[in-house]
Give the backbone structure.
Amino acid sequence: MFRTLRNHWKKSLFAFCALSYGTKWSYDRYQANQIRQFYCQQASLLGSQTFPSMTRVTRIAVLLNAKANNGKAKSIYDKTIFPLLHLIGLDVRVYRLDTITDSDGLKELLTNKIEPNELSALMIVGGDGTLSELTPYFLQSNILQNLPICLIPIGEYVSFARSLFPITDKKKLHDDIALLCESVFALFNGKIVRKPLLKITMSNNNEKPIYASTFDLGHYTRLEQLQKRLWYFSYLKYPISSIYLSIRDSLNSILSSEQSSIIYSNPCSGCLRCQPLLLDQYRLSQQEKKSSYFSRIYQSNRTNIKPVIPQLKEPIENSNCGIEYCMNLDKQPIQLWTKLIKDEHSFQIDISDKLERFNYDKEKYPKQSMNVQHVRFYPNIKLFNRHMLINHEKFDKKKDKEEEEEENQLIEYRIELSEKTLKFIEINQDLLLTKQLTLKPTFNKLEEDALEKKDIFLFSRRHQQKQSS
């Protein structure tokens, strides 16, 4: 046998690699099925429980983007998400977003077809692009704006969903079956939080603003795009992309030569300048505290428990709110990253003015980070096609004749947080699967012996031992 393997070492090596890959794939598939089985059991138990009519989640609308994750979103939803919703006993209405081709059809779907007045929650199956496309319609409707949104991160890029999920070792969230199942159970044990999105407006764009979770512009963005296209080179894709980009494209600044400055404002936690409605809320809370003489006598004879209402502080005017500053840079910047953070009143921008061609770790790029309330700048028009990404995707816009004539004009980009926020369901940090694995026995040996005297056996092995003896 060993002589045969030695004589046909190429075939043996190929067979060993194929067998190893098949074994690993089968083991991962078995583990995923075991996790699905556990959560299906938990879902059936949850469906058999009775809830008060006011707290029971009965009907949800699932907005499914089947084109997300290269067309794999539909199969992942059918295999992992739908069985849990069925076992819990929810009234699920699934709507395919990939079949809608125009904005009028999407508006008709979200305002009439899904019947938002009858819904308890919304479920979005997709990535950052799907959420960005739906956000403008959510903000226009008061009903949709106040509905809890459960995100199922099956898209290729899910930067926003990572802020709602526990930390995981998986590079892609849809590979973590436990987190996908936990996102369904978050409808019952999750926490509702309000979060804004990035609002991107352009001076020459008469259309609606763009809502996103990330905005990237510059040399490193182009480098990362090239590395993904050269995936078949494995680890050699990093030096090959750096050498190719240094020969093909020249290093340009992200700012226009005529307006080469970045204007920003410092974050504000909320004052009368940026949130004038705070004064009305404070006055309303003060009026509720005041009561007439007869009402006080009437309430003194009653023993009703009043709900605890949080006291609002009197809003003040921040003198530094809205004041714009010019960023001082030694060199012209070559990269700009923008992303959301946990703070609801600011977002983070990272600016780099130094190039390291053979540094392939994004976290170790030379950059300057700061939190701002808003930022505006005039980008270099030459970098629009290949060096700018919104939600990790290229921003493609159909050009009209008038826009082509104004292509050489300066365009101001303004990035800020959206004025309105949406309700999102944050997943519980204590996963059900982790609790099940670390569950300690509730009965000790003395309690087991006391119960066995009454012919009550907690474990079958103890029953078999007694019968054999």
